[in-house]
Amino acid sequence: MEKSCMYFAIISSIVLGATSAHSEAESRHGPMHGQMEEQMFKEADSNGDGAISMSEFNAFQSRHFKKMDTNRDGKITHDEMVAGHNKHKENNMTHLDKRFNDADTNHDGGLDRSELGVMPMLFKYFDEADANKDGKVTIQEYFDVMQLLHRGKAVNRGVNMESL
Question: Which of 33, 68, 82, 134 is 20 to 30 A from residue 156's alpha carbon, by CA?
Answer without folding.
Answer: 134
